Amino acid sequence: MPDPATVTGSLPVTHPAQSAGPADATAELIAELTTHHLTIAVAESLTGGLLVAELVRIPGASVVVRGGVVAYDTALKRSLLHVDSSVLNVHGPVHADVAKQMAGGVRTLLAVNGVRADIGVSTTGVAGPGPDGGHPTGTVFIGLSKGTGSWAVPLHLHGDRGEIRAETVSHAIDAVRALIAQGDAE
After folding, report:
1. Beta bridge partners of 69
2. pLDDT tens across 82-141, in order?
3. Residue 135 gets which letter from DSSP?
4. Continuous segment of H or E residues that includes residue 82
């Protein structure tokens, strides 16, 4: 796990086209989480439940997937996931800090018996069809939280609304796998 004090806020992410790995990255992620005895919680905005649906598509996911929250409304990001009001007021819901705070917040929200999920992942951004809040279509942030660290993966995706949402899910799976791999490298 990288030292949170030295992380600049982003992680390297391998993309499916660049990976020579297995055909089903989601199945591999569930296997990696299971092997490492890690749980995951998901907070979604622009993907609207697609990410958690992709995770639970895999048999055995219930061992590691705590659940997911769709906080599409900005007010829910604040009230449910405890995203700082000042961040939302200054930057709006499409920002790296919002993604990081969503990922950390969902770990606590979906705690079981007082134990937070080991990993939080979130999605926020603009899927289109047009720009929103001064951000062009395809502006996306994936948030990650593990231990005391949090990171954001900025993306600039192209395509229609459905393609952007699907690509965000794919990139989120890859980002969580990269986070787990970094933990193994220590």
Report:
1. 43
2. 999 999 999 999 999 999 999 999 999 999 999 999 999 999 999 999 999 999 999 999
3. B
4. none
Instruction: Return the higher-pLDDT residue of 16 and 142.
Output: 142
User: What are the residue ranges of helices labelled H in the chain?
Assistant: 25-35, 50-56, 74-79, 85-91, 96-109, 161-184
Q: How far apart, in whole angstroms, are the C-alpha atoms of residue 30 and residue 26?
A: 6
Positive or negative, the CA dihedral 52, 56, 60, 63 is: positive
Alpha-carbon distance values, 74 to 8, 16, 124 (Å): 26, 30, 10
Q: Which residue is associated with the tokens 């890690």?
A: 38
pTM of the full structure: 0.88
User: Roughly how many angstroms between the first and final C-alpha of the chain, as a whole number?
Assistant: 6
